[in-house]
## 1
Amino acid sequence: MLTPQKKITHQLGMFSGLADQLDQRHPLFILAHKIDWSVFENAFKIYYSEKMGKPSKPIRLMVALLILKYLRNLSDESVVAQWAENLYYQYFSGEHHFQPTIPCVPTELIAFRQRIGEAGVELILKESIRVNKPPDQGTMSVVSVDTTVQEKNITYPTDDKLYKKIITKCWKIADIEGIDLRQSYTRSVKKLSHKQRFKNTKNGAKDARKANKKIKVISRQVGKRNSKEIVFKQSWYLFEGFKTLSAGSNPSAWRQ
C-alpha cells in the first residue's frame, strides 16, 4: 500500500530539526534541495496500491537510499546501517528529526529495484544528469563518463583456459585440413570441464585438480597428432610434386 508523502511543516517544536543542526554547505544538504523528488513520487506511485497491502516505505526514502548506495559505492547492507548513524543521510532522505533505527531491511532495496525496473533506474539517472548539468547549457546531447576505475567484465587467462583453447584450435585445424583424428576427446573434455567448475568446493577440489591434469595431457596429445598429420600431408604433397616434375622431364624414370 502506498504511504502518503510526509508534509513539511515550518512549525517550531520543542527540539530543533536536522536542518538547524547540519552544515548547509554540505554536498548532501545542497543536493537534497536540488533534486526534484516529486518526479519520483509521480512516476513510482503507480506501482503501489492505495488501499490494499502492507504500508510501504516512502518513495523518497527508497530513491535516496539507492542514490546514496551508488554515490558512496556501498552495499545494500552498508547503506542501511550507515543511514541510522549519519544525519546527512537522513536529511537527504526527507527526515526532519533524527531516527535511531534503520529505515528498512536490505532486501527491501532489492524489491524496490525490481518494482521500478530498468525504466525507474533510468529515471533516477536522468534526474542526476539534470542536477549536475552546468547552468549555461540548455540541452546536453553528449555525456562524458570516466570509466577508468569502473569494474569491467573481464575474464583473466589461466592455464586451464589456455589448454582448452589449444584443444579447440586443434579441432578447427583438423576440420580445415581434413585430418581424421583417431580420438577427438570431445566427450572427455566436456565431462572434465564440468568437474573443474567445483574446484573451490570442499568435495570437488580433488576431482578438479585431476581434471586439470587430464586436460593438459589431452591438449598435448591432440596437438602432437595434428602436427604429425600436417607434416605428413605436406611431405606427401612435396613428394607428389617432385614426382610430377621428374616424370615430366624424364618419363622413363617413373615407369614403376
Note: The mean pLDDT is 81.
## 2
Amino acid sequence: MEFGIWLQTLTNIFPSSKRQNSKLEMPFHTIVPESLSAPERHALMLSIVIPRPIGLISTISVDGLPNLAPFSYFQAVSAVPPLLLFCPNRNRFGRIKHSLINARDQREFVACMVTEEMAEAINYASGEFHDGVNEFEEAGFTPLASELVKPFRVAESPIQMECRVREVMEFSDKPLGGSIVIGEVVRFHISEELLRKSDGNLSQAVDHPEYQPISRLGGVAYGLLRKTFDMPRPKMTDDGKVVEGSHKITRKADLRTP
C-alpha cells in the first residue's frame, strides 16, 4: 500500500474529532527505573499514582500488642469475594514493618477509612516507633473490639472493615522493598449517617456526598474530596455500538465549600 493511501486510511479510521493531536505531539522524557536510587523511585511512584486512598490498618502481635499505621498503597481488589489489599513496604533502612509481621503471623487485620478530622492523628501514627509502642495510645485513637478478628477497630473512623488474610507476597528485603497483604472482608462496620436515605431508611451503599475520605498525593501532600462528576458507562446497542452521547458527563457537583 502506498504511503498516501495508508495515511488516508488511518485518517478515515481515526478522524480528527476523536484525536487529541496536541497530546499526541507532546515530548516525553523516558526514565529507566534502574537509573534511579530507591528513594528516587519511591518519590517518583508516589508523585505519579495519585490520588491514593488511605487505609488505617490495625493489627495485633502474637503477644497481644495492638499496632496501627496508615498506608496509601491501599485498594479494593474484588467484590466476590470481598478483597482489599495494603502494601507494608520496608522502611528506608530495610526494616520490616510491624503491620506486615502481625498480618503474616496472625492472619488478620482491620482496615479503617480516614477522614479529614483524622488526618493529623494518622500522620502521627505513621511514625517509626520502637517495638512495644501502642499507636492507638500514642496517636489518641479509641480502640473498639471487633466481632470476628483480634485486631481492634478505630472508633473515630466512619468505616471499618474486619479482614482475614488470604495471601501475603514479599518482593524484596531491600530498603523500601515491596510487599502486598490481601485480606478478605468478613465484616463491614459503617456509620449509619453515611447510609441513611432521605426517607430515613438505610441504604446498602455509602452516600458519597456525606463521605469525605482524604487521599495521599506526592511528597507530603494530601487531597480532599471537593468536586465530583457523574459519567455512566456507555450504553450499547444490540449490534455492539455505543449509543450516541451515552458516555458523556451527566452531572457535576461541589461537595463542600473549602
Note: The CA atoms of residues 30 and 78 lie 33 Å apart.
